[in-house]
Records
---
Amino acid sequence: MSSPPDATEFFSMTYGEITVSGWVTPDVLRGVEAGEVIRFTVHEAMSEDIALGDLICNFAGGTLAPFRLPEGT
């Protein structure tokens, strides 16, 4: 699966001992960095040598949210 053309920003997150990286849009990156409550897709996500495909994430306050946000958030 390939990233949409507007997913131009590299994104990496670590949760515990697992790091996942991939590509997001500039708007998503700004939202995460601003601490917004946001649901988004990390395109072409990877963890070490494992391809995860497109990974849906929920963030709040700049960190992974421990709850599922509704679509469109």
---
Amino acid sequence: MNEIQDLSLPEKHSNKDNSKASESVSVAGVTNAATGSLIADGIKALATKKENRPATKGDLNLMIEKFLGRYHLVKNLPANAFGQYPYYDIITNEIVYLQNEV
């Protein structure tokens, strides 16, 4: 009854065929993930309206150019009898009427 049992762990056997199979699976997995990501981004771009997309640097530069102009068209006032349109002058803080649109 006092027998000693061998409780050592079994040795690990490395199989080179398994490592090749796992490499090909990982390459396929990366390819599938990249393809899925591209498809998802494409669907998202098609489904999102233009006005709901994030602003780009070009959009921000266009806004800055518009805001830095001196005259801004006042859309809720009609043209005067001479056909001049009302503009707000941001330097003098007054409404001025100009012949051509600025």
---
Amino acid sequence: MNEQTQEILEDNLKNKQLIDLLASSVNAEVYIAQSDKTMASYGLFNLGGLSTISDNLANLSKSLNDVDAKLSDILEVLEND
């Protein structure tokens, strides 16, 4: 059980780091858009900024679902004890 708990904590730390990365990416795009909308559009569409954000959100969603499944498994074990 301790091993599973440690794994969940590590996964949650990775999720927090990914959320921070996504927030930074979005904040950077907003900052660029405030001064140069053309450059912001270029970054989002031509340089793959939007795809990167989308991919990171998909990875985050999968990881959150994995953590949820692990927590459900632990709760099931605890309920059966």
